[in-house]
Amino acid sequence: MDLPKKVKIVEVGPRDGLQNEKENVPAEVKIELVNRLSAAGFVNVEAAAFVSPKWVPQMATSREVMDGIARKPGVIYSALTPNMQGFEAALAAKADEVVIFGSASEAFSQRNINCSIAESIARFEPVAKAAKDNGVRLRGSISTAFGCPYQGDVPLDAVADVVARMRDLGCDEIDIADTIGVATPRHTQAVMETAIRAFRIDALSGHFHDTYGQALANIYASLELGISIFHSSVAGLGGCPYAKGATGNIATEDVLYMMNGLGIETGVDLDAVAEAGHYISQFLGRKSSSRAGNALLAKRNG
Ligand code: HMG
Ligand code: MG
Q1: How far is the CA of 107 from the centre of ligand 1 (A)?
Q2: Could you tell me which residue, 114 or 244, shows the higher pLDDT?
Q3: How far is it, in rounded angstroms, from Cα 235 to Cα 243?
Q4: Phi, psi dihedral angles at 147 (to 5 degrees)
């Protein structure tokens, strides 16, 4: 099969990337980051999470961030919403898309959102309905689809089941997430093929963390199946607070470098993203985890 000619990259750095930072990142820094990213050409930026601030303190400034960003026409600014309380907050903050996030593993569901998979779907039902009633785009994210830090292997049937439930809730897009970055390319294809049987291929996305350095290979393996939406995080920021030891998403700069080399259109300016990666890495006081970002910076600095 030919690779897709065009892909959508969802930039999740401001949410998935920063949610795990121990030191408080002020709202104005997040706002500057989001603005730099939308200026770089992303059509979808995950900017906020309306979750309990006791569970994820870093996301407590989500309203301020959503209020402060310069909204670029045509860009979808997404926010995580685990329940109706989160949905109301996201609606008030004018999120263009809300993300219900469940898991293919019971153990991870309990640790991350404090309820079983079935309970989570029941919580998502009113959120999904409210999203439709208010004309807000609805995305479903499925964590630990490739492996779980608490239960280990995750069967394909469990992934198929949650994809079908998310589909039945009316999701416009569904993310298949490797929360702890354990997948390898053939396993990725097996999981993606399972998801493709249950949902529209053009609305399925791959969300790969890079813990074991496999994320880029897994994206390529997904491209081979025709998947055309991928999540990534500028400078490779991030990790989930409820997946200990798991590192950030694959770095956006690395994904863009590969897409450019493959002649796949993204609509995003790699140099501008590398600058945004440099900006946030400097703020955090550490080197970016993006190989391509660091190489571009070194080249620029001669
Ligand atoms: P709970 O304790 O079961 O909820 O938490 P509750 O309904 O019993 O409420 C308890 C308290 O939380 C109450 O406050 C509520 O007001 C408050 P109190 O009376 O104690 O002061 N609360 C909220 N506050 C703000 N916004 C809300 C909200 N809901 C309740 N929406 C809950 C359940 C889901 C809220 C909690 O477990 C939670 O917030 N978990 C956070 C999970 C999270 O954000 N994880 C990281 C993001 S997921 C991820 O990174 C994976 C992903 O990237 C894909 C992948 O890589 O796998 C998407
Ligand atoms: Mg994630």
Answers
A1: 16
A2: 114
A3: 20
A4: 160, 150
pLDDT digits (tens, 9 = 90+) for 70-103: 999 999 999 999 999 999 999 999 999 999 999 9
CA nearest neighbour of 165 among 111, 215, 109 = 109
**Ligand number, closest to the Cα atom of 105:** 1
Distance CA 262, CA 111 (A): 39
Q: What is the pTM of this model?
A: 0.97
Residue 243, C-beta contacts closer than 8 angstroms, at least 6 positions apart: 108, 144, 149, 179, 180, 209
Ligand 1 closest atom vs CA 85: 31
Instruction: Kindly compute the dihedral angle of the four CA atoms of residues 178, 183, 186, 191, in this order, to the nearest 10 degrees.
Output: -30
CA–CA dist 297, 302 (Å, integer): 9
DSSP letter at 190 equals: H
Residue in the structure block whose two tokens are 């945004």: 276
Site to substitute for ligand 1 among 12, 18, 50, 51, most atoms within 8 A of C-beta = 51
Report all structural domains of the chain as residue ranges with CATH numbers, in order of start: 8-301 (3.20.20.70)
3-state helix vs strand vs coil in the chain, percent to 5: 50, 15, 35
Nearest-CA residue for ligand 1 atom 12 is 52
Confirm if 153 and 184 have CB atoms less than 8 A apart.
no
Q: What spacing in Å lies between the alpha carbon of 122 and ligand 1's midpoint?
A: 15
Residue-wise pLDDT for 263-276, tens only, equals: 999 999 999 999 99
**DSSP 3-state assignment of 79?**
strand
Q: What is the pLDDT of residues 102-157, one digit of tens each?
A: 999 999 999 999 999 999 999 999 999 999 999 999 999 999 999 999 999 999 99
